Amino acid sequence: MSETNNQTNNQVNKIELYLNGKIFSGWKSLNVQRSLESMSGRFDLGIAVRPEDDVSVLATGSALVLKMGGQTVITGFLDELKQSIGGQDKTITISGRDKTCDLVDCAIVHHSYQFKNQTAKQIAEAICKPFGISVVWQVQTPEANERIPVWQVEPGETAFDNLSKIARHKGVLVTSDVDGNLLFTEPSSKQVGNLTLGENLLELEQTDSWLERFSLYRVIGDAEQGGAKGDTKTKNKGAKGETTVADDIYGD
């Protein structure tokens, strides 16, 4: 691991960690995970150093920015620092997440736990404000921008859980961007680029699985509609709104 000066570098694959006023490079392993299904991106970095090297500057809880090829990929905090020492070797592994990790870990802070006649964006901004996280709203669908008459928050509910409910309610996606902001967006038909194996896609892995696949799926209705008896006619009766169970094929 080395500390470098803040100079222009044209190495596309260079990994730089900006933390506590210093820039660290020379990492030997890197794993960055970002997904539309995740509200907070995460990373792992590893390197072998000398036992006498001081790594105290890599203090957990520190704010950081991780860049690859000069482009920011994570803006957040250092979660963990692991050290492994054996003989003359010392290995350190650090991991961290986007600033939005606080939304995943922490409960919502609100005086009434209820929002009235506000848009999804306004509710999200109020939830994120105590954590110092900005909301980026990239949604144009009119329905998604309509006000919600009443939106309830359960005491102790995490911001992640409630914000995910808002996104599902409005039919939008919620994730984080590389600057640590909370991002609401929607599917787009615009093509942003191509992935070509051997060029910008270096490795591809595909898995075919037979797990959790079944030949029969049963839908059981509630007791009022005859579902408690396993009635094969439950589906049809429920669709017609019938409530009697007198014609159950299994009887009493």
TrEMBL record:
Membrane spanning residue stretches: none
Sequence ranges assigned to domain Baseplate hub protein gp44-like N-terminal in this UniProt record: 14-98
One Pfam family hit: GpP-like_1st
Start and end residues of each Baseplate hub protein gp44/GpP-like second domain: 100-185
Residues covered by region (Disordered): 225-252
InterPro entries noted in UniProt: Gp44/GpP-like_2nd (IPR053981), GpP-like_N (IPR049354)
Name assigned to this protein: Phage tail protein
Higher taxonomy: Bacteria, Pseudomonadati, Pseudomonadota, Gammaproteobacteria, Pasteurellales
